[in-house]
Amino acid sequence: MKVELADGLVAKRQKLANGIAKPQRKPGSSRLFAPYRTIGLVSPTAVPFTSVPLGKTTFQITTSVGCSLQTYDLRRGLQLVFITRPQTPGPITASVAWKDKVFGAWSEGGEGGARGAWVFKRGKREAELEMPKGWREDVKAFCIFGGWIIGVCDTTLLVWKSTTYELYTTLQGISPVPFTRCIASLPTFLNKVVVGRHDGSAEIWNVSSGKLIYTVLPPSTAYGAVTAIQPTPALSLIAIAYEKGPLLIHDVRADQMVMQLNTSAGAPVTSITFRTDGLGAGDDGQKAGVMATASTASGDVTLWDLNEGGRKAGVLRAAHADPTPAAPGGVSKIEFLSGQHTLVSSGLDNSLKTWIFDHTPFSPIPRILHQRGGHSAPVTKLEFLPSASDGSDDTGKWLMSASHDRSLMAWSLRRDNQSTELSQGAVLSKAKKQGLLSGGSRDSLQDLKCPPITAMACSLNRDGGMGAVPGKHPIWQNAKGKKVDAEVSAMTGWESVVTAHARDHKARTWFWGRKRAGRCAFPTSDESPVTSVAMSPCGTFALVGSEKGGIDMFNLQSGFHRQRFPARLTTQQAKQLKLDMHKQGLAEERSEDGKKIFYRGQGKHASAVVGLAVDNLNKTVISAGEDGKVKFWDFSTGLLRHQLDWSISTGITAMRFLRPSDLAAFAGSDGCVRVVDVGTYKLIRELWPARTPIAKLQNVVISDLTFSPDGHWLAASMDSLVLLWDLPTGHLVDAFKLQAPCTSVAFSPTGEYLAIATKDSVGVDVWSSKALFTHVPTRRIGAAELAAIVDAKSTQAPTTSGEGGQELIIVGVDDEEEVDDDMMAGLDEEPNLDQLSSDLLSLSLVPKSQWQSLLHLDLIRARNKPIEPPKKPEKAPFFLPSLQNKQATPGAPRPEEATTAAELEKERSRILKQSAESGQSKFSALLHEAGETQVYAPVLEQLKSLGPAAADIALRSLGAGGDEMLTLVQALTWLLRERKDFELGQAWMAVLLRLHGDLVVDDDALRSAVGEWRDALDGESKRVARLGAYCSGVVGYLRAARV
């Protein structure tokens, strides 16, 4: 940056902080937003969860969410209690919980990437395991027992000491076949672990001596790799599962197969667990011997009864989602909690569930106890819940998100355990009745849920909360021919969310308060797929736009169709209109202002409707067509009022409406965002990324856009780039790059957060606005700077632990963004809180109770006066000695004899000193000094520091002869003219006149001083009244209808 001086251009020196140059902002980072956190991640990775008992009352379950670990408490209903910080440099590859610590191994990937293993305690990093120098293999699994920590890599076993975390040894066999992630310790076998390999063998190692003890070979080489190993409650027995073979119970001491269980083909067992509470098996569930198995290729959990040769006791169908082309699935791990009848399962569908065996009569199949989950596929649509009409404090708290996994989630930004999925009815019960759960293919199971959501709209003005339309109702039924009780719905409210779905001709409704699917599904009149939806601000009407250009309006209370846009013509009206148009050319008729006149039935969109909105007064409906035409309809009659035709230059891909300002933004296929004033039908802004076209942004389409709640900013996403324009100036003020292409953006109603969804994440990234906490420069970004941001390799994204939010308060200003030193001068100085400006009449910072108590101190003393004299205390019991009757100890000196002459002299000096000082108090001394110097601030500060009782005594002790009272009146007049501490000065003057009013009347000087104070008060009163009248007039002018 350069500064122009008298003798030419010179380079401006870099601003230093404590002698250190400020770090430069990376090209791809944001100036106006700071990463806050990522929500919606529970168990999205293939790393299995780990659990540990916490005393005898609960268990803590830890899952991996990429570069952090999340710990949930079982007794609190899987409430999130810890998130590990700091984040690991790379994704976590293995984790294990042991005592009060959690171990996490991470890897940056690649040949040259770093690896490591960190130790966390209560979410904070405490230590690090020692890694071999130059280590290049990922740790795939952990096993901890005794004093050993074992990590499984591809070709090596790493052994650490659990007390010092130092590397003890590395174990590497002679087999070239790599290890799988299957490892288990052998109870009662000292220092022994069993590890599986990809050729089906299971090796037993002594970690203390570093020797291979024995190798358990598979019965057949065709069984494939070992996929799961788990020791059984019976000693010397382990369960081994193979990729293409059965599940075997093997006796490692005798090297004999004890039991063979055949599993489902195509779904190899990847997780095994045994129930340890001694129940669950047999016909009545009173025997031990229950085993559960699961696979990453299926969402089912199989339960086995190992008594009498072993049999399949039951199958927990659809415990987690099955893998589909659109979303991952399968069960990553299951585990019976030690000594409990509770089963914990996690799936690749980003969910964590607990199941309990408590059916009466006995059933081997458990029921759901707790569950936490999120989307299993990338998020496609975001929408913050608008403000409710009752002014509740939920504004900005709730965020709705839709995904390819056919779910609609509600996320709470304040309390994570309140987040939930909106119910779509008893999907599993329907699937069970139709026999879909037992079939080999479950594609039809997904068909029982609604198709993926492509658009959503919400209005809470008629939302009834939990009590909306009570009772059981069929979901998503056509309202035609169905009787709906309007009185009940009018008293309790009705649905408040409407959604459009991919390749579906019906828009569906949802109860927000009840978090479930609504009663109605609104079909399009032309039976083409729904492409856009909207709701009226009153919450009564829903509008549905179709792929063929039709627009229909429905009543949410009754579910009936109310209007079409354009309005529907009868057969006779259509014939007459065609005849008139042919004879008289009515289509070309224009009004006095030159606008085209549209008749009933005219103006239908010729292409898909990509956007719909209703204005704040339910008078105008705005619709945007894919062909570039924007139409404005009359809400009541369905007639077309006006249209904007941009079809020659661009098409429209998306639309957003800012209801408080009546502004509509349209994303064009040419990369421009056009803003229209709905009231005047005029184009007021054209927002381009840059004046000079950038090659890499030429063919990039705007995927989504959103207004800030105050209408100051407009954000849009183009591929992995997020752009932010300042609407008043039309300048591009911020641009930052994401790690993946953006699919949706949304501003919170409070302006605090910007939510962003990307194609590579099942979570939602939430960003915080820096403008709420600090000054942020909003200069225009030029074409050269934007090109550098597009080419930048550095990206920015929030994290689950919220570490990126550390820049929210401490914001460094780049050299190019520096504000002038004159503007920033004085910001580091301590602000004057007593008075913001000398033109403002300010109040004091003294507590209100202090000066109010001074005004009514006599009343308070009268109220607190005792109503009867104190009573003589009753005699104490005979066994308690009395100080008065206590006999002196023989030989002990009496108190009066113990006083020495020195002590008497000291006491006499103290009394004399106190009596000398009592002649003049500090307040009186300051009054005398103020009378001589005319500086009144110290005496008023002293009076402010006194309590009500002390201030009353100080005012009562004033004497007229010493000019103390006159000085105090002059000080109060000075305080009034300074326009400071107004209510405090009024209270002091009121008490002064009440106590010494007779002296003021008799003394001419005092009477003159009080008159001067009164004149100053009248002048200030008139000034404030004049300013108030001026402000009232300005507000009235701005609120006038003509303005």
UniProtKB/TrEMBL annotation:
It comes from the Eukaryota. The keyword Repeat applies. InterPro entries: Quinoprotein_ADH-like_sf (IPR011047), WD40/YVTN_repeat-like_dom_sf (IPR015943), WD40_repeat_CS (IPR019775), WD40_repeat_dom_sf (IPR036322), WD40_rpt (IPR001680), WDR36-Utp21_N (IPR059157), WDR36/Utp21_C (IPR007319). Residues 834-1039 form the WDR36/Utp21 C-terminal domain. Keywords: Repeat, WD repeat. Residues 884-908 are annotated as: Disordered. GO terms for cellular component: Pwp2p-containing subcomplex of 90S preribosome; small-subunit processome. It comes from Friedmanniomyces endolithicus. It holds the Pfam family Utp21. WD repeats lie at residues 372-421, 602-643. This is rRNA-processing protein utp21. The gene is UTP21_3. Transmembrane segments: none annotated. PROSITE patterns: WD_REPEATS_1, WD_REPEATS_2, WD_REPEATS_REGION. SUPFAM superfamilies: Quinoprotein alcohol dehydrogenase-like (SSF50998), WD40 repeat-like (SSF50978).
